[in-house]
Amino acid sequence: MKNSTILLVIGTDTPLTTLAQKLETIRAIPAHAAIIIVAEMPVFSYYAVGVEPFGNPDISPEWQQQVTATKAALHAKETEVETLLQQHELSGDVTTVAAEPAAIADHVARRAMLCDMAWIDESLRPSKMLFKQALYGVLFQSPVGVLLNTPKGNVLPDPKRVFVAWNTQLQAARAVQQALPLLRAADEVIIGTFDPVMTEFGEGEDPGVDVAQWLTHHGCNVTVQQYPSGGQTVSHCIMERAKETGADLIVMGAYEHSKAREAIFGGTTRTLIEQTDLPVFLAH
Length: 284
Description:
The structure is a single chain. By secondary structure, the chain is of the alpha/beta class. The two termini are about 20 Å apart. It is globular. The protein has helices spanning about 15-30, 60-85, 100-110, 130-140, 170-180, 180-185, 210-215, 235-245, 265-275; strands at about 5-10, 30-40, 90-100, 115-120, 145-150, 160-165, 190-195, 220-225, 250-255, 280-284. A ten-stranded mixed β-sheet has the order 3-2-1-4-5-10-9-6-7-8, with helices on both faces. It is built from nine helices and ten strands.
């Protein structure tokens, strides 16, 4: 990860102590910190519907106050973050984004396109739409993977054992490719497949062995496990098997249900996103 650019997506409520710890780990790599501070802009009140052409719209004073407060909070946070960068003597840049929820993904994706990896702060979770849009922007509109639930004090996990939820789909392969620096640093990588189709035209006669061989060439210590789901959901199986093996990071491909702009994350992806028990690396 040396000389890489790591995107940190934070909000106005992100604690400075948490951010300072993350910045220190980035400085130790060393890497460049691309920090984007996001906030929801209140939806404009359309009180002007029906006004005659060239008439004066009736703009809600409450809306104006919320916009002013949002911009002020962003500016204050930007100043604090820039001060932190100077204190930690860290190469970095700071961007602020105030937009309606549907536009957040586009702004985050634009910055993520020139980064190597992304991290989204847990303080964004209470605002479900803001968190979802930031995550959507990284996963489905940029070429990089994203880390969630990283240990306090680390923007990057320091995994000893990584559990890779593997199938032969493109999303899983991209996740492994994007997570390669983390996999190479781990003591052990476990390739887990669930109810694999063991045919030549399915997932191969011995699913998981091919990716294990490729990772071995990169110096990874790899084992392959094939699991039956036993009627459980794949997401439940991934979490249970990861815990059983003592994994401290899950790597998985991210999926969506549709190509619509307001796409809903696939069931397994949604569960891994919503859980906060284990760090997870997702890529599409």
